[in-house]
Write a structure and sequence with these properties.
alpha+beta, 32% helix, Immunoglobulin-like, ten-stranded mixed β-sheet, eight-stranded mixed β-sheet, 4 helices, disordered N terminus
């Protein structure tokens, strides 16, 4: 009995596949209007400044960071103070900074209250053992080039190009000194999630190279903006994130300080995000499949002996096509509900259509089981009715 059922199913599948050769071009011609994608860079990189790389005879005993956010979370003013101690006199370059994408923003550096000139770090300095004497501990070789390494582990670290580094020249005496830095940073824009994330960054990771850590005070002034702001530093030790928040650390809290603004979205948008495009497609397809089952039952009730079932073949194509249509377009629908802060970066979502034949065959097999059951049921009912009449 099972063998005969298998032969019956196999012959029907072969016939259906032959029919699909004619139907699939028409089905896939329905999808080009859906094939949209945004594969642009998922992050618009903003400004980044780092804690300094220190000369081997310079220790930073204390650092103070004040970050002031503007009213629309587009720019942030960074005022930083480094309390350092020089172990000997005559150090020409005490500090090197990683400073990327400042977009010609003026940088102000003071050494013990005196303004100094900020310069780009020339690449040939990396191979000059006299000029950068004292910074060998941050140098690494990548291919044939020496580069500055942001972490101790090459497998997890970041190599820094010299054209993204700043330095200043001075001649400090042995003892304690104060370095003050002020600059304005541009926001980062992160499109990797459903809702666009706006962010400011400050790299703390170079502290891994310091001989000693000292202490760190961070103050965030968000009093000028009404937008929700959060950080990756945890709960403030003093104040709150709606006004002025303060943190105090005696060890490295994170590798990169992140100050974030994630716009609030409606409940309906959050609900759709939680379900997701696949879930929305599945729900709609389930509703269509329930209707499809009732149509199969109605067809077999009228034609229990019919060998070919257009309701089975075409209905399965329609349900699976609806599933992929909703799955793909739900990305756009959710973006529309989110509104202006939707990231709209979802990659090549249309590529899911390559699974169309697999999903179709699976769904078709399930519907064939229903169709076989209805055919058997109504054939028996039809035979019994005919026998009673005779």
């Amino acid at each position: 009995m099972l063998f005969s059922f298998y032969k019956h199913c196999n012959s029907r599948i072969i016939a259906i596949l032959a029919e699909m050769k004619r139907l699939l071009p028409a089905i896939f011609s329905f999808f080009p209007i859906l094939l949209y994608a945004n594969m642009a860079e998922p992050v618009n990189r903003g400004s980044v400044w780092s804690r300094p790389f220190t000369h081997e005879y310079v220790d930073i005993t204390h650092e103070e960071i004040l970050v002031t956010i503007d009213s629309i979370f587009k720019h942030a003013k960074f005022d930083i103070k480094y309390h350092l101690k020089a172990q000997k006199k005559g150090i020409r370059i005490p500090l090197i900074f990683y400073a990327a994408r400042l977009n010609d923003t003026p940088i102000e550096i003071k050494v013990d209250g005196e303004l100094v000139s900020v310069k780009d770090l020339p690449e040939y300095y990396l191979s000059d053992s006299l000029i950068l004497h004292g910074f060998d501990h941050i140098m690494d070789t990548l291919g044939q080039r020496k580069m500055i390494h942001l972490a101790k582990s090459p497998s997890s670290g970041i190599y820094v190009r010299t054209n993204e580094c700043k330095y200043f020249e001075t001649d400090i005496d042995k003892g304690e000194h104060l370095i003050e830095i002020s600059y304005t940073a541009d926001q980062w824009i992160d499109f990797t999630d459903w809702v666009t994330l706006y962010q400011f960054q400050y790299m703390l990771s170079p502290a891994q190279y310091w001989r000693s850590f000292g202490t760190l005070d961070i103050t965030l002034d968000a009093s000028k903006t009404n937008l929700p702001v959060n950080t990756n530093l945890g709960t403030p030790h003093e104040g709150d994130l709606k006004n002025i928040a303060r943190w105090h650390f005696n060890k490295l809290p994170v590798e990169t300080l992140e100050i974030n603004h994630s716009p609030e979205v409606s409940r309906s948008a959050r609900f759709l995000i939680n379900i997701g495009p696949f879930g929305i497609g599945l729900i709609i397809a389930l509703l269509f499949s329930i209707l499809h089952v009732f149509m199969l039952r109605s067809h077999r009730q009228k034609s229990p002996d019919a060998r070919f079932s257009a309701t089975l073949i075409f209905g399965s194509l329609v349900v699976v096509a609806v599933f992929f249509y909703v799955w793909i377009n739900a990305h756009l629908w959710i973006d529309n509900v989110i509104g202006e802060h939707a990231s709209s970066h979802h990659g090549y979502v249309f590529l899911v259509v390559i699974f169309f034949p697999i999903v179709y065959l699976f769904y078709l097999f399930v519907m064939m089981v229903f169709d076989g059951f209805f055919k058997s049921h109504f054939t028996k009912a039809h035979f019994k009715s005919f026998y009673n009449k005779s």
